[in-house]
Amino acid sequence: MQEIPFVLAKTPAASSLVDKFQEVEFSGIYSNYGPKNTQFEAALQSRLFGSQGCCLTVCNATIGLMTAMKQAARKRPRTSPSPRYALMPAFTFAAAAHAALWAGFTPLFCDIDAGSWGACPQSERRLIAKYGSDIDLIVPYATFGNNIDLDHYERLHRETGAGIVVDAAASLGAIDERGRGFGTGFRHPVVYSMHATKTFGVGEGGVIYCADPDTIATLRIMGNFGFGEPRCATMPGLNSKMTEMTAVVALECLKTINDVSDKREMLADAYRRSLISEFKLQSRTGRRTAYQFMPLLLPKWVSRDAVRASLSAQGIGTGAYFSPHLMQQPYFRAQCEADDLTVTDDVGARILSLPLWTDMTTSIVERVVTALHQCVLSNPADQRAA
Ligand SMILES: *Cc1c(COP(=O)(O)O)cnc(C)c1O
């Protein structure tokens, strides 16, 4: 095992939850939006979303994105023979493009902003001008738990009529500029992951939030086989339900999410203070970012493979999220379309993700930074000038 792993998942100790697990066992209710799940959804709505809107648990964020996208498609019945496009940034995780394809959309990738690494508004505009009403859906990604501008997407929805589904997979724990949990009050589905590697990690799980209760009510039915009437499908469906045992873990995570997110932001601040200016960091928005890891851009004159190998040899794990980006993955390249992706190509080629986990200390951050500085500054000067 690496001395300093890239990710180190931390879920609540099962031993401390034995009583709660037994409550599930004795109730005989293991799923189907049972009492623990209901309790978790209500607690989440009040603790993270200021008691506004509604929450629906799902078994993971990918399935949550699929159902939310499918619902968006149903709202706009199609007559034109051209594909229905889902506009999304190329710099995101494969799950968003897979979900769009499963829901019947053709992913259409826009470029990203060089500072925030979120969807670039000019690139979105270019694609909207070119594809017009064939764009049925817009899927922004709250990049690495950052607080993107949701008002911008409400405006795009009003202008184009396209549905909006937000991929906020890493965002449970993020706080927007008004001091609310990221997503609060948004009238379109916002999908969060509770995968073990996220800030709010239960193992497998997810949440769909929406300020509109009808949207959540419909998604709840779709997630239970489309049963709008007892045992009778009235709409498209699948099984997206989360287990009661997971809800027990999630309730426990909710108690600590604020402290965990603060701690992780403190570690990110330690990185920001220590890293030399040769590294480019993501511009932050909102009051708190939910950090899954610490992303940065390497200087152009440095080989990422060499840096990763050198850090690995020193027992330090790293990642390169998201490289390859979506348009560089063969399955997507073969069937998706894209705008010019100059910034995505550049960011994807230089991105490096450093360890950032809840039990890390600032002295571990210092060790990582020192090792990184050594390997970057040991590059010959002629290479740096090139
Ligand atoms: C983690 C992640 C997902 C998938 O979440 P799961 O709960 O693992 O399905 C989707 N999109 C992004 C951007 C992610 O980081």
UniProtKB/TrEMBL annotation:
Q: Does the keyword Signal apply?
A: no
Q: Where is the active site?
A: K198 (proton acceptor)
Q: Which species expresses this protein natively?
A: Neoasaia chiangmaiensis
A matching Pfam family: DegT_DnrJ_EryC1
Q: What is this protein called?
A: Aminotransferase DegT
Residues recorded as bearing N6-(pyridoxal phosphate)lysine in the entry: K198
Q: Is the keyword Phosphoprotein assigned to this protein?
A: no
An example GO biological process term is: polysaccharide biosynthetic process
Family, per entry: Belongs to the DegT/DnrJ/EryC1 family.
Q: Which keywords describe this protein according to UniProt?
A: Pyridoxal phosphate
GO MF annotations, alphabetized: pyridoxal phosphate binding; transaminase activity
